């Protein structure tokens, strides 16, 4: 039996058509979302569905599980459903294709939509400057075409126009390309009307979780729904808006709410079930009120997890801290080091390294082959590293082992300064291998949505200044700090870090 607070009851049973629920960390946001879904589902005898929207599969699965556990399997019987925004975008696009309102190459109406184009001809690692990444777009005759954008940051994709066109013509698309086509579609008034009509015919209520993670296209959906007479519930926290670098536009949430012709009624969830003891309840209130706050200094042996803005800051947070990455992967050597680290993180933390999939793609490795042979190929290097063998020799062994794993070519040696940095990564890893107990080191971006009994954070001098002057919602660095400091249930403190790294700890993020 679920017992709700008065705040939660008011939010769940809000009678208004347009509702905005502001939720503090640990305030039972997912519980309220599940309760609100059931309330909307059984409130009216309307044959149209109730739609729950989230931003990743894990969150969608969690929300659906909560709904079934509370309301039973029938609550999610068709047409009622929970899905990710990516799934909704695919559904909308396929409806437009079926109606011939948009024309896909070769006339496809049903698409094979994938997370990316990994494994297809032309998919490779693209670096600036001088490279272009192909993306789907739409011409003035509403036909899907391949367009080119200059590569600004390193990443995977298809750079050749003919190869991208061949993929699209086969009916395959990435979620990124689905979004790109729909972003073009919502600029066309006739297509906007079609999408709005489809929403109105299929759904009577939409509930969006973590709305401040929305990108522009995502915000078009609740705006259309609200203008089409649907009930719309937005749930989120402007203090936890982290994903601007991923394309999220949290600053547009308020604008979307304000430009909707109807008025959104605001409800607050202020009571947190996460915080306990004497420190965290007070700290959480200070942060949210924009008041100056002070943190105690802690040793890394006193906490359950270490958090920082960047990976490199975590490698100086304590020898018992095992970060899930060395750095953003920029070349084949970085990818090889990531797979070596992966062997250690899996063995000690039960977690894969962050960037493992990118590393395998960049090296041209088969996932199944890595699964079978990774330990045999890389295990001896880990053991030699722990035994004190020179890292220069181990770098050579690592490059050879990558070929053994199936890479088509051996990673090249880097320019000496960069090579020295990678050798230092091995030294940093060596210092962890003989520790009796290790804790994970995560960037704040990976930590969002999680909680631990105690948290140690690595802060730069500029971040400490922000903390001492008071934080503000929807400001990038402030949100990073707020999320980091509110992951702890009972204890949070500052970990020591090398002063020479200070400029890196706040200046450049690493996802």
Textual characterization of the structure:
The chain has 511 residues and is an alpha/beta fold. It is built from 20 helices and 17 strands. The chain has a six-stranded parallel β-sheet, sandwiched between helices. Strands 14-15-13-16-17 form a five-stranded parallel β-sheet. Strands 4-9 form a two-stranded parallel sheet.
Could you name the ranges where pLDDT drops below 50 across 5 or more consecutive residues? 498-511
What would the principal axes of the Cα set say about the shape? Answer: globular
Give the DSSP E fraction (strand runs of 2 or more residues): 15-25%
Rounded average pLDDT: 92
| Cα distance spanning the termini | 39 Å
Q: How many β strands by DSSP?
A: 17
* Biggest β-sheet description: 6 strands, parallel
**Rg calc:** 25 Å
Instruction: Give the helix tally.
Output: 20
Across the major sheet, the strand order is 3-2-10-11-1-12
Helical percent range? Answer: 40-55%
Class per helix and strand makeup: alpha/beta
Short description:
With 511 residues, this protein is of the alpha/beta class. 45% of the residues lie in helices and 17% in strands. It has helices at 6-12, 29-43, 57-71, 85-98, 161-169, 175-185, 189-202, 216-227, 251-259, 279-288, 311-314, 332-349, 356-363, 367-387, 391-404, 416-433, 444-447, 461-469, 476-485, 502-507; strands spanning 18-23, 49-54, 81-84, 112-114, 123-126, 132-138, 144-150, 155-158, 172-174, 203-208, 231-236, 265-269, 305-308, 321-323, 439-443, 452-458, 488-494.
């Amino acid at each position: 039996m679920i017992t709700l607070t008065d705040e939660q009851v008011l939010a769940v049973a809000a009678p208004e058509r347009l509702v905005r629920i502001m939720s503090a960390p640990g305030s039972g946001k997912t519980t309220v979302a599940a309760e609100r879904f059931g309330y909307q589902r059984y409130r009216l005898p309307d044959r149209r569905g109730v739609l729950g929207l989230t931003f990743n599969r894990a969150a969608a699965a969690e929300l659906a599980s909560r709904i079934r556990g509370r309301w039973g399997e029938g609550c999610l019987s068709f047409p009622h459903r929970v899905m990710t925004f990516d799934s909704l975008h695919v559904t909308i696009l396929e409806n437009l294709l079926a109606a011939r309102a948009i024309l896909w190459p070769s006339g496809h109406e049903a698409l094979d939509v994938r997370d990316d184009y990994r494994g297809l001809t032309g998919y490779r690692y693209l670096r600036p400057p001088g490279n272009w990444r192909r993306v789907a777009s739409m011409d003035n005759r509403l036909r899907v075409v391949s367009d080119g954008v200059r590569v600004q940051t390193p990443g995977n994709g298809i750079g050749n126009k003919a190869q991208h066109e061949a993929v699209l013509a086969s009916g395959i698309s990435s979620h990124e390309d689905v979004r790109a086509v729909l972003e073009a579609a919502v600029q066309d008034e006739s297509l906007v009307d079609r999408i709005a009509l489809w929403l109105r015919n299929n759904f009577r209520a939409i509930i969006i979780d973590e709305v401040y993670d929305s990108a522009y296209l995502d915000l078009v959906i609740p705006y259309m729904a609200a203008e089409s007479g649907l009930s719309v519930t937005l749930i989120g926290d402007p203090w936890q808006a982290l994903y601007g670098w991923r394309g999220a536009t949290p600053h547009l949430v308020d604008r979307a709410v304000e430009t909707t012709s109807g008025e959104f009624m605001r409800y607050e969830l202020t009571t947190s079930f996460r915080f306990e003891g004497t420190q965290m309840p007070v700290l959480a209130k200070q942060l949210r009120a924009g008041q100056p706050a002070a943190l105690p200094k802690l040793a890394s042996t006193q906490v359950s997890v270490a958090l920082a803005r960047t990976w490199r800051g975590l490698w100086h947070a304590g020898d018992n801290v095992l970060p899930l990455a060395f750095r953003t992967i920029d070349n084949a050597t970085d990818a090889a080091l990531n797979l070596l680290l992966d062997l250690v993180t899996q063995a000690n933390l039960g977690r894969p390294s962050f960037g493992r999939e990118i590393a395998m793609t960049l090296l041209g490795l088969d996932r199944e082959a890595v699964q079978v042979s990774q330990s045999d190929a890389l295990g001896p290097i880990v053991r030699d590293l722990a035994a004190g063998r020179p890292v220069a020799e181990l770098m050579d062994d690592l490059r050879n082992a990558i070929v053994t794993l199936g890479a088509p070519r051996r990673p090249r040696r880097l320019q000496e300064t960069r090579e020295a940095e990678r050798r230092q990564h091995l030294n940093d890893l060596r210092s962890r291998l003989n520790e009796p107990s290790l804790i994970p080191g995560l960037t704040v971006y990976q930590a969002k949505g999680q909680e631990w009994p105690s948290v140690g954070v690595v802060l730069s001098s500029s971040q400490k200044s922000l903390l001492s002057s008071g934080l503000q919602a929807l400001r990038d660095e402030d949100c990073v700090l707020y999320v980091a400091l509110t992951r702890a249930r009972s204890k949070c403190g500052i970990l020591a870090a090398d002063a020479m790294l200070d400029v890196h700890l706040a200046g450049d993020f690493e996802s």
